[in-house]
Amino acid sequence: MQNDLEKILFHEQTILSRLDVLAQEITAEYRDKELTVIAVLNGSIIFAADLLRRIPLALKLDCVSVASYHGGTASTGQVTFDQISVPDVSGRHVLIVDDILDSGRTLFAIQEKLFAEARPLSAKVCVLLRKIKERAKPAEADFVGFDIADEFVVGYGLDYQENYRNLPLIGVLRAELVTNSGR
Fold first, then answer.
1. What's the pTM value of the predicted model, to 2 decimals?
2. Domain segments of the chain: what residues?
3. Which residues are catalytic?
4. Top-level CATH class of 18-146?
């Protein structure tokens, strides 16, 4: 699978070292607060698992299954929620954990739905990767692992057509393997 990469952006040890720092920041922010972490499936599962093991706080964990790419490399503009209701986070602080902030559509839709239906005390966002680009929706991350260029990346949970999630690193997929441009 690594032969399918144009270049490696972050090796596993670099990612894990950055997670140590993120965990310290999150722990400081949520000490003595009722915290629920909501992992966005499927892309954030590896990131969330590694991150949460580094946070020494009592917390609740839930997941939302949301899709906006639908197998391609660019957001379709439609964000689809796979479950009927959002997690019960009324009166709690929420940390949404996602793999990548790209167009902003997914995180914007999750936050909008959470505040409309579940009424948390607060909702912040933690992403492994944030693309430096203009966003289609006004979404921002409060905790960021790495800023990257607008390239199509895979590994460490990020996929292309459900492949490459299990790579222990993050790399740029070779352009000839991608059927349409830009994420």
1. 0.88
2. 18-146
3. 102
4. alpha beta
